[in-house]
Amino acid sequence: MALKAVLFDFNGVIINDEPIHRQLIDQILIEENLRPKPEEYRKICLGRSDRACLTDILNGRGRFVSEAYLTELIARKAEAYQGQIETLKKLPIYPGLEDLIFKLRVSKLKMGVVTGALRCEAELVLNRTDLAKHFDVIVAGDDFTSSKPEPDGYLLAVERLNELHPELDLQASECLAIEDTPAGIQAAKRAGMQVVGVANTYPFHMLQRQANWTVDYLSDLEVERVQQIYSQRALQPTVDEC
User: Fold this and answer.
1) Cis bond leading into 149, ω under 30°?
2) Same structural domain, 80 and 189
């Protein structure tokens, strides 16, 4: 088994924009005459799509909204997100990301993004930072109805990479996912992938219990060593291997 592709989560791995998302979710709740609760966003929303997040929060407050109204709320939030991003002179891209992408390119590994964020949000950030050119596929929240921890997004990414590069004959087990939340880690593992947990959002020790590898920063990920472990068919590497 060889490592052939690396799939990145977006929010919390590529861009540090969770504070923006939390503010916008809180604003929606206020507009719905609901009081935001400090623990709600972290417990319900981190690592999940806006649709899943808003559905669970509203249902938990006794609000059952139609799909059409939910779509309207999501569109309103997406418009506000794009407005905030456009006001930033420099986007909060995580340190070490560009160096890691360079290493993966040198290793001739395919790259993709798998996110619950809307495509318009992901493309806005990736295009503005000139990172879009590095990713063969972007699987966004628009492309599948389920949310992490369901594996659908990751499985779709494998399918699309095979469509673009049929010579790869890519299997999920030949992909490495990079995630920052338990929901994301579960999604990738359910798809049959090994996972790097990066401690951008949750403490190292929490991710260490769930991910195959755990790193404090993207720059800590040693690509060559990971490739060696894949080639040796080591299915349960430890954190010390990074």
Assistant:
1) yes
2) no
Place of tokens 């609901």: 34
Nearest to 121 by CA among 24, 193, 7: 24
Q: Is the pTM of this model over 0.85?
A: yes
Give whole-number Cα distances, 20 to 81, 84, 88, 128, in Å: 7, 8, 12, 17
Question: Which residues, in sequence order, are CB contacts of 42 under 8 Å at separation 6+?
Answer: none
**What are the pLDDT digits (tens) for 173-217?**
999 999 999 999 999 999 999 999 999 999 999 999 999 999 999
- CATH number of the domain residue 133 falls in: 3.40.50.1000
**Per-residue model confidence as pLDDT tens digits over 127-153:** 999 999 999 999 999 998 899 999 999
Q: Which amino acid is at 99?
A: D
Same domain, yes or no: 61 and 131: no
Both 70 and 143 in one domain: the answer is no
Query: Residues 143, 198: one domain?
Result: yes
The residues facing 179 across adjacent strands are 197
Residues 237, 114: contact at Cβ < 8 Å? no
Q: How many helices (H) and strands (E) does the chain have?
A: 10, 6
Residue whose structure tokens are 């050119």: 133
Residues in Cβ contact with 209 at an 8 Å cutoff, skipping those fewer than 6 apart: none
Number of structural domains found in the chain: 2
- What domain range includes position 115? 5-16+92-241
